[in-house]
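Notes on consecutive records. When two proteins share a document, each keeps its own sequence and its own token line. Never mix them. Below: protein one.
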Amino acid sequence: MTLITVLFSLLLVASVNVYLSEGVTKTIISKICSKSSHPIACKDLLNSDSRTSSSDLKHLSLIPIELSQKQADYNLKSYTDLYYNATDEVKEESFRQCLGRYYGIEFNLVEARKLSTQQKYLRAGPMLMKAQSLAAECAYANSVSPPSIFPKIHRDMLLRAETSVIINTYISKVNTY
């Protein structure tokens, strides 16, 4: 390798590293959220967290994962209560299945967070997609069941999971080192 090639490689890595460590602008948030099925809700979600405005791309990847983890914890507690208080066997079974899915969601989010912290975005992607898929399965299984809390907890979980996937995908494309 020539000296020029080595210097060019170092310059390229340094410029990508500077790009990833710069603050996230509203333009970047808009670009990322334009890939969402609910762009305005995606922007609102990210802007609702005070860390977003001072975050760089590396840390931005963690924000929706952590928000997903909080929502998954809430949903798991809700399904636990519903399961133990169910009077209908069919609903009880549905709630039990969602409990299993939410344990899977939590596992995948913990692993994805570890990988994102290590900047292994491509490896974290499938775990985030699995968490999103499990949340969708639970939402679908309980889409016609009362109580009225279901639409909100499922919508919130699905939005957070989708935002995690979108941000992770975006960063994996600009993260070339």
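Protein two starts on the next line and is unrelated to protein one.
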Amino acid sequence: MGGENGVETAFDIALILASSPKLEYFKLSVDREVCSDFLDVICDAYKRRFNGTGLSLKHFNVGEMLHIPSKHMLENLTDLSVIEKLQVGGDCRCSIIGTVPRLWEIFSPAEMPNLKELSVMEILHRNWDLIAPIVSGKIGFKLKEYMWEPGRRARPLVDLAQGAKVPMLQVPLAGVIRNDTSWFFKDSYRCEWLTHLKVIAPVDVCGLNSKGGWLCCLPALCDEAPQLPNLVALSFGPERELRWLNCHGKQELAETAKKLMNSCAKLEYVELHVVAFAAKWREVGSGPAATGQKTWQKLDDAATEMRRPMFFADS
């Protein structure tokens, strides 16, 4: 960022925004190792130097290491009631302010009635319970990473899902004992509202147990995922740009996907890192007696990009 505290760069960005009154998508990120008030500076420059009417952003993406400004400051930049999709970096590592408490103050359903999907990169464990009022009534919530704190235990899927209670959920498989996938999915039959689930697994989720034996997460996934009674789409594995360590070749992933498809009654799409399958319907019989039968099609990379649910797409 140019100039003292990035003021010159903020002025340039504010000028571009003021020249784009019909702008609907805005993504801001910074390359820093410490947290920044850069978005505050942009909001201030936009209002004071250009006296601009607030934008009507529908998609607002605020990267990591950026503090979330106050409600009054954000309203200088955009009409909060118009935003449909919001992504923020997450709770600050500087301990000055937590993003989630600030979200709870600003982005209430009353302030943002059109918000459909919220994505948060990182959340402090102690702030998880603040998510419920923010995402109440929304379609989807994405969480990429937890910041676990000493003395605090991990939460299984059922606790996370009941905190967010949205039909589409992305959560990390984090803070659990290595390969304890069964524990993570414990009692997930109670999450009957979940239709789309993306679980981001660490690359080393499988490995040696305390006795030196090898444990893999895939058998537990096959045993536990069918508990979710209304699951339509499932994604499980590390981020696509990462390699899954230790095991899980394409053949093993394909066999696991087939088992999931046969055991999850409503499942129509399953993606296990680099392997994806989608439901394909064919007509059996003819005339009035004809019925539809669900079969499965393995997808190549191009077909995966087309069939992947939008909620599973990387933000």
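For the record: The first helix runs from residue 7 to 18.
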